[in-house]
Design brief:
Layout lengths: L1 H11 L4 H5 L6 H11 L2 H4 L1 E4 L3 E5 L8 E5 L5 H9 L4 H12 L5 H7 L5 H11 L4 H5 L2 H7 L6 H13 L2 H7 L5 H13 L5 H10 L3 H14 L5 H9 L4 H13 L15 H13 L4 H8 L8 H9 L5 H7 L5 H14 L4 H4 L8 H11 L8 H6 L7 H13 L8
Antiparallel strand pairs: 1-2, 2-3
Helix pairs in contact: 1-3, 5-6, 6-7, 6-8, 7-8, 10-11, 12-13, 13-15, 14-15, 14-16, 15-17, 16-17, 17-18, 19-20, 20-22, 21-22, 22-24, 24-26
């Protein structure tokens, strides 16, 4: 807001938009609008009205008193900007026709489409309707930012229609926008227009860090893939780093008739992926439980198998998981604790020793499992583990358990 206030003052002194704002972000325009509106009238200087005339408030006159004279060309842009953002709706409306022919002022025309004053808003919308779709697309981030306002959907509808009816290149250009809302908007339109082949959609899902885009692109890739696309789409989805994307790929194995391949994801590190793998196997007539039991017997090389066994096994499998609690690999110990929790087979006195585990992730998992039974743990035993010489993970675990047992006050 301080930057917007500074820009408003510079504009009042006659600076151009480039000089006052520099490289403006979408948030800069509503902020500038507020900053100019909040400036005292005597600091604003001059305002531009329809026909290129200049009107100035007389400081000693009532607010509605106007004095007219022609505006010099050098200060015309700054005066138009100030007029477009002025607190008096008559002045905002009088400046709209000047803004319509200036690409630099298009962002403020978009802002005025959400104006609280109906005459200003309707005139701005009429003028924005005449703006080429490509010009409006350049400010998609601002349009979508203003969509949060009560009157903000008009420009969104124009943008949507322009992108749906315009050349594919306009949509393509927005797919990599720095603005998250713009990326999502463009991807939805690209999916609806079938502009992206299934393989590319799968790779977009796998490479995105946005959960919304992951779901959108993964679902679209699976829905649009043909027989010749199976390997391309599933190859990208099943090797994705994100669990929700892998889960979509595993579920798609059922659609392609490759049920047995889901067994490779039974021990995935993601619980969602493991659940999808079990579902696909069952749909193909295979019970996953014997597979889990086999994976948890002998030398365990897939840590997630322990968690999976707990998720679909029964209490008779608890002994197998307790044996894995002492496994030399931290990942196996971690998933064994997760499996015991899933079976509701946690025994606090047997699990408490994991609070001293050298692996912080195992300590945290054990702590979560022990919290419901924190009152059963000795206060002295926990206090010993809250000593300064203990590892940080152990101290934090002890404090959480002491607090859960009522021995420490909750932190604010």
């Amino acid at each position: 807001m301080n930057d917007a206030w500074t820009a408003a003052r510079r504009l009042a002194d006659g600076a151009s938009l480039d000089e006052a704002l520099g490289r403006a972000s979408a948030e800069s325009w509503p902020a500038l609008d507020r900053a100019i509106r909040d400036l005292p009238p005597w600091e604003l200087g001059a305002y531009v009205a329809q026909g290129g005339q200049r009107l100035r408030w007389d400081r000693t006159a009532p607010l509605s008193y106007l004095r007219w004279r022609r505006a010099p060309g050098a200060a015309a842009q700054s005066e138009t900007v100030i007029s477009l953002c002025h607190r008096d709706g008559r002045i905002r409306e009088s400046a709209l026709d000047l803004a319509a022919g200036s690409p630099a002022l298009l962002p403020l025309l978009i802002v005025r489409c959400t104006d609280w004053a109906a005459p200003v808003r309707e005139r701005a919308r009429a003028l924005l309707s005449e703006v080429p779709a490509a010009a409006l697309a350049a400010y998609a981030d601002l349009v979508l930012l203003l969509a949060r306002r009560e009157q903000g959907l008009f420009a969104v509808a124009l943008l949507d229609r322009g992108l749906r009816e315009g050349p594919a290149a306009q949509v393509e250009a927005l797919l990599t926008s720095e603005d998250r809302a713009t990326r999502r908007f463009a991807h939805r339109i690209a999916v609806d227009r079938a502009l992206l082949p299934p393989g590319r959609l799968a790779r977009l899902a796998a490479g995105s860090g946005d959960a919304t885009l992951q779901d959108l692109c993964a679902d679209a890739a699976i829905a649009s893939m043909r027989d010749e696309d199976h390997d391309d789409v599933l190859g990208a989805l099943l090797t994705a780093r994100n669990g929700r994307v892998r889960a979509a790929g595993v579920t798609a194995l059922r659609r392609t008739g490759r049920h047995d391949e889901a067994g490779a994801w039974l021990a995935d590190r993601s619980g969602v992926v493991r659940a999808c793998a079990r579902y696909v196997l069952r749909q193909g007539g295979t019970d996953p439980l014997p597979l889990y039991r086999a994976m948890c017997t002998g030398e365990v090389t897939e840590p997630g198998a322990a968690a999976g066994l707990g998720e679909c096994g029964d209490r008779s499998d608890a002994g197998m998981l307790w044996a894995l609690v002492g496994h030399p690999a931290p990942a196996v110990r971690l998933h064994a604790v997760t499996g015991l929790r899933a079976l509701d087979a946690v025994t606090w006195d047997r699990l408490a020793r994991l609070i001293d585990d050298p692996s912080p992730v195992v300590v945290r998992a054990a702590t979560r499992a022990l919290l419901p039974n924190a009152g059963e743990l000795s206060r002295e035993w926990l206090s010993e583990r809250d000593a300064p010489d203990r590892p940080r993970a152990v101290r934090v675990a002890a404090q959480r358990l002491l607090r859960a047992a009522g021995h420490l006050r909750p932190t604010s």
